[in-house]
Amino acid sequence: MTEKAPSIDLAAWLQTPPGRHLLAWEQAQVDAAVVDLFGFHALQLGLPELDGLQANRMPHRWLAGRDVICEFDALPFESASLDLVLLPHALELACDAHALLREVERVLRPEGRLIVFGLNPASLWGLRQNLGRLRRRGEPYLPRDGEFIGYWRLRDWLKLLSFDVEAARFGVYRPPMRSEAWLHRWRWIDDVGSRWWPVLGAVYFIQAVKRVQGTRMIGLARNSRLAAKKAPAVALNNNHKKR
Fold first, then answer.
1. Are 139 and 109 in contact (CB under 8 A)?
2. Cβ-contact 83, 232 below 8 angstroms
3. pLDDT at residue 3 in the model
4. CA 5: distance to chain centroid?
5. Which DSSP string corresponds to 16-27?
6. What Gene3D superfamilies has UniProt attached to this entry (predicted)?
7. What is the CA radius of gyration of the chain?
8. Which domains does the chain have, with CATH numbers?
């Protein structure tokens, strides 16, 4: 009988040297991306360790699980009511990634923005994880044995839902080392990797915009003024704190 490989908790993994390194890269990317995104309502689904909306200035910002209690595939928001949705690794953890994306498309306004972070299976980190899964022994390198969603595969999904990708980039090219010392020694390869093999980074970032054919900008402006007066109804956590 083959022994099943042990799993590792995401929150615990983010405290490890590779987890901290990945989280720092993602925080820098999302801070730069959201600082100039305007609107009224923003929502982050997943990964509370990443403060994805800290640099954003929208008046209504929610983190699911802390500010809003909801199922990710049944969001308590009206259709076309949100200006920005963040999915940091939420698709990888979802029971049905397609259903989650469809729900996000529903609640986003026309021209609303979607930001996704995902682990790249076509990377050294992804390769080590897959090899460990095949051998079924030892602790996995990454926090979960679930299916990775490849970058190009996700772009196809977004296209089918009428999203246009505005920006995309990869990061974290260092080998899958566990120690801080070895990760630091390989820091030089991040610049080399981003230049010579950019699509092989351990993590990818995608920013997409929801397109609706026939939508007129005058209608968007009128809807935005109405949204400023009334926020969408949500189920708030009893421990809610203003962000």
1. no
2. no
3. 31
4. 26
5. SHHHHHHHHHHH
6. Vaccinia Virus protein VP39 (3.40.50.150)
7. 19
8. 10-229 (3.40.50.150)
SS3 for 201? Answer: coil
Q: Are 131 and 109 in contact (CB under 8 A)?
A: no
In terms of Cα–Cα distance, which of 190, 116, 105, 127 is closest to 153?
A: 116
Contact 199, 155 (CB under 8 A): no
Half-sphere exposure of 40 (CA within 13 A, CB side): 16
Question: φ and ψ at 39, to 5 degrees?
Answer: 155, -150
CA angle 146, 149, 153 (to 5 degrees): 155
Q: What would the pLDDT profile of 155-176 be if each residue is shown by its tens digit?
A: 999 999 999 999 999 999 999 9
With CA atoms as reference, report the closest residue to 158 among 170, 148, 169, 150.
150
**Contact indicator for 45, 72 with CB cutoff of 8 Å:** yes
- Around Cβ 219, how many Cβ atoms within 10 Å? 12
Would you mind telling me the total number of residues written for the chain in this entry? Answer: 243
Give the pLDDT score at 87: 97
Within 13 Å and on the Cβ side, how many CA atoms surround 115? Answer: 26
The mean per-residue pLDDT over the stretch 93-106 comes to: 94
Average pLDDT over residues 5-18: 74
DSSP string, 142-168: SS--SPP--HHHHHHHHHHTTEEEEEE
Q: Answer yes or no: is pLDDT of 226 > 60.
A: no
> How distant is the alpha carbon of residue 96 from its chain centre?
15
Q: How far is residue 45 CA from its own chain's centroid?
A: 8
